[in-house]
Amino acid sequence: MKILVTASCSEGLVLPLVPISWALRSAGHEVLVAAPANMASVVTDAGLAFVASGPPVEMPEVLSFDRQGNRVPMPSGEENLLPHIGRGYARLAVRLLEGVRSVAERWRPDLIVTETYGFVGPLVAARLGIPWIEQGMRLSSPAAITAAGAGELGPELAELGLTDLPAAALSLDLCPPGLRREDLPGSMRMRFVPYNGRMENLPGWVLEERERPRVCLTFGTRVPLNRSPIRGGFSLLEELIHRLPGLGAEVVVAASDAVVRDLGPLPEGVRAAAQLPLHQILPACDMIVHHGGVGTTLTALAAGVPQLTIPVIAEVWESARLLVASGAGRQIAFADATADAIADNAAALLRDPSYGEKARLLRDQLVSLPSPAEAVRTIERL
Ligand code: TYD
Fold first, then answer.
1. What pLDDT, on the 0 to 100 scale, is given for residue 226?
2. Which of 5, 121, 263, 370 is the most exposed place for a label (fewest CB within 10 A)?
3. Considering the chain, what percentage of its residues have pLDDT values greater than 90?
């Protein structure tokens, strides 16, 4: 088969598409990844063929401006934030539609693979009359986001003679049953195989025996940027590198080189991982403090590491609730996330072995789910 993978505009949304892309490729299928130009090196670093679906774009642009370019105020409350995010993903799809459509009409794929809110995938699948596969990435994907996205895409759907987005032929659900017991309709559970970006050489400290507990601290690729519309991410990170060593723990900061440079000299007991892939770092850590990003959450689950999550974006709040309900972690709302509150919760997590036990149980469940290679066999039979 020829399979077009349509990806969105940040590492967080592109990296989880890599394992299924490689599983398809390894089974002999042709795979082409279409993503905005700013994702070119993320895709080619993964050894996959890339075609630009449009010029560089970032989520804040499509979230903050409507189709006419008018500023959209950020609402408050989960019930308003989820539709706001859905409309943002829809505007991203509109930006990428022409690019993906033109690639698809020339390359003629048999199948499209995209992430849950990568609405350009189902739009182009409908135009070509081909099936599409949903790669789930969140532990739970709020339906309110999809509903609002479909609403915003009314004109594009009408052009196709549709009133709603076409259903996926299959959804790949990465949530282990210990976090959500119910199977989602039309889905198969798949093992999350971590891929966090280009590999570096494994530094020696990862394999050395540690004398103190080790805490990984990350706010992902976007939240710590000074240009991020999420105010306070960088300064909270800065406060935490001074506060967390006070727990008697060694701290590993996973952030880009630019963010680490802005943090200045690191205090005693803090090490920068220099954007090492998290799945290389986490097996050598006792817990992780993070911003609730999808790849970060899943990678910590796959490593069996307890998590203190400060979920920044409403689209992952439900995922954070599931994580906390499982007993494998704690959460603090970003709005209430002072360095003191985070340090207190991190200390509680380190003290109580039950969080680690639950996290390891979830890891064991996760690794026993069907692999991406097995998912490919199901896709081939569709
Ligand atoms: P994600 O957790 O979804 O967060 P965000 O979209 O806010 O960046 O995605 C971040 C991905 O980048 C995830 O796969 C982890 C990876 N990553 C590392 O592996 N090491 C790092 O130092 C950083 C900053 C990110």
1. 66
2. 370
3. 94
CB 279 within 8 A of CB 301: no
Q: Which amino acid is at 233?
A: G
User: Rounded to whole angstroms, what are the CA distances from 75 to 72, 82, 83, 160, 314?
Assistant: 9, 10, 10, 31, 11
Taking residue 297's Cβ as centre, other Cβ atoms within 10 Å add up to: 27
Cβ neighbours for 331, distance < 8 A, ≥ 6 positions apart: 292, 308, 309, 310, 311, 320, 321, 323, 324
Interface confidence, given as ipTM, is 0.99
Span 133-186, pLDDT tens digits: 999 999 999 999 999 999 999 999 999 999 999 999 999 999 999 999 999 999
pLDDT at 232: 84
DSSP string over 134-191: EE--SSS--HHHHHHHHHHTHHHHHHTT-SSPPPPSEEEE---TTT--SPPTTEEE--
The pLDDT value recorded for residue 229 is 65
- Report which of 55, 1, 3 is spatially closest to residue 33, judged by C-alpha positions: 3
Interval between CA 289 and ligand 1 midpoint (Å): 13
Q: What pTM was computed for the model?
A: 0.97
The whole-number pLDDT of residue 200 equals 80
Which pair of structure tokens corresponds to residue 160? 């196709």
CA distances from 345 to 25, 52, 234, 287, 370 (A): 43, 43, 20, 11, 34
Each residue's pLDDT tens digit, 207-233? 999 999 999 999 999 999 866 667 789
Best probe residue, ligand 1, of 42, 192, 196, 217 (max atoms within 8 Å of C-beta): 196
Query: Residue whose CA is closest, atom 13 of ligand 1?
Result: 295
- Name the one residue in this structure whose structure tokens are 């796959």: 302
